[in-house]
Amino acid sequence: MHKLTYLEAGRRALIEEMRRDPRVWALGEDLGRGGVFGQYKGLAEMFGPARIADTPISEACIMGAAVGAAMTGTRPVVEMRFSDFALCAIDELVNQAAKARFMFGGQMRVPLVVREPVGMWRSSAAQHSQSLESWYTHIPGLVVVAPSTPADNLGLLKSAIRADDPVVYLEHKALWPLEGPVPEGEHLTPLGVADVAREGRDLTIVTWSAMRHASLKAAEALAKQGIEAEVVDLRTLWPWDRDAVFASVEKTGRLLVVQEAVSVSGFGAEIAASVAEALHHRLKSPVKRLGAPRIPVAYAPPLEDMARVTPDRITEAARAMCVHAEAV
After folding, report:
1. Alpha-carbon span 131 to 153, nearest angstrom
2. How many separate helices (H) and strands (E) can be counted in the chain?
3. What is the pLDDT of residues 81-107, one digit of tens each?
4. Other residues' Cβ atoms within 10 Å of the Cβ of residue 52
5. What is the pLDDT of residue 326?
6. What span, in angstroms and rounded, lies between the C-alpha atoms of 54 and 9?
7. Per-residue model confidence as pLDDT tens digits over 153-195
8. For residue 24, which phi and psi values (nearest 5 degrees)?
9. What's the pTM?
10. Which one of the listed residues 128, 172, 187, 213 is annotated catalytic?
């Protein structure tokens, strides 16, 4: 093990996969300069402009070119800069990449990875702060991944690049500087397998991306109050690890789903509904969701904080579930 930042781990993953497989290449705006966050720093010098390709400022053009290139046998890694901007390329991704395997009777694959930096970043405002994972989990044919640690950003990105289906890969902007242990040598994290980040007996918190860290802080605060929360980081949103979630809820009898995205129609609703349908007889309290209100993210920090899901809010929601159940 050695320490890398979340950003460095993703960079290492791409370098390793490009060295391993000559079909892997990357395209997007300003990649030759290292990318807007520095995720591609030095890669143009390593691999040349044919494999680290700068593109026009047109997300539809970038995605369309990548879909065609994937269909002809290469493995493109598409950089969208911000997940908000990827909406300009939604037709190419949703109606072309996601549908090709079905429409060609399984004879066609579209092995591409779409990297979309997501989430709230201080004072980035309404057009640069969204978490849109539920848009993609709704679409048959797409794999959706949301890594939360440096080790998972390494292992999941490598697995995503090797996948034969289009992968929407959601990296949280606030996690770029996060440092953590990363295995040396070859490291792959399987798609569709959750991580039990903390074990507990009283309550299950299911979450993903940056909310893993907020949930772990909340679990520490709850432990001081005598409540042991189990934190399950999904890591992959589609397919999501039903077995791990169900096993945890069967043990604790309570479920709190925590997401940064707007709560209305968020992916947390899928988790909540699935558990309520399958395990209603095992629940000690109603399933609860915690997410952002249905408002645009503001530029001003005090207003921005009104949309932020914090460890304190998670702690309060979890404690209420346990205390209410005991009172009943």
Report:
1. 17
2. 12, 14
3. 888 889 999 999 999 999 999 999 988
4. 25
5. 54
6. 22
7. 999 999 999 999 999 999 999 999 999 999 999 999 999 999 9
8. -85, 130
9. 0.94
10. 128
Q: Taking the alpha carbons of 65, 68, 69, 74 in that order, is the dihedral positive or negative?
A: positive
> Peptide bond preceding 166: is omega within 30 degrees of 0, i.e. cis?
no
Q: What is the mean pLDDT of residues 25-38?
A: 93
Let me know if residue 94 belongs to a domain.
yes
- Residue with structure tokens 């209420």? 320
Q: Is residue 188 part of a domain?
A: no
As a whole-number percent, the residues of the chain with pLDDT over 70 amount to 98
Picking from 138, 158, 182, the residue at the C-terminal end of a domain is 182
* SS3 call for 231: strand
Per the rule left: phi > 0, alpha: psi between -120 and 50, beta: everything else, 105 is: left
Instruction: Please check whether residue 189 lies inside any domain of the structure.
Output: no
Give CA–CA dist 135/72, Å, rounded. 27
Model confidence pLDDT, tens digit, residues 97-152: 999 999 999 888 999 999 999 988 787 777 777 899 999 999 999 999 999 999 99
- CA torsion, ordered 174, 179, 185, 189, to nearest 10 deg: -50
Averaged pLDDT for residues 31-43: 92
Whether 128 is catalytic is yes
Co-location of 156 and 280 in the same domain: no
Burial class (CB in 10 A: 0-12, 13-18, 19+), 57: exposed
